[in-house]
Amino acid sequence: MAGPAVIKKVAIQIAGWLLVLVGIAALFLPGPGLLALFAGMALLATQYEWAERRLEPVKKAALRTAADSVSSWGRIALSGLLIVFLVGAGVVWGLQPPVPSWWPLDAKWWLPGGWGTGGSLIASGVIAAAMLVYSCLNFRGIRDDEAREDQRV
Question: Is 0.85 topped by the overall pTM?
Answer without folding.
Answer: no
